[in-house]
Amino acid sequence: MRTVTNWLVLIVSMLCFAAMPALAQTRRAESSKVFVTFVKTGLDLGCSDTVGLVEQSLMRLEGVKNARVDPKNYGVNVSYDAKKTAPDEIIAAFNTATAEFPSLKLKATQP
What we know:
The protein is an alpha+beta fold. It has 3 helices and 4 strands; from the N terminus they run H-E-H-E-E-H-E. 13% of the residues are buried.
């Protein structure tokens, strides 16, 4: 009986490991990236408080996986789940959430 149980455990383990690459590819396919810019140029994006406010505000939005401010290009690199949100939704939600900071408004980057 132990031999049968050991074989079943081995087979189930092999099936699980075989399925992992397919699951990883599915997750990667759902992830998208976009670069959005600030409407106003000349912002002090070297200030850690401003950078933190922008990144944390974006990270709170549904579907946003990562947000990193790019001070040299006056924008933000955003990774998001394309099944949950889109760039225009991210921009609109961010601009609404940070309405008390008009200088931090985002806009879509022209391709």
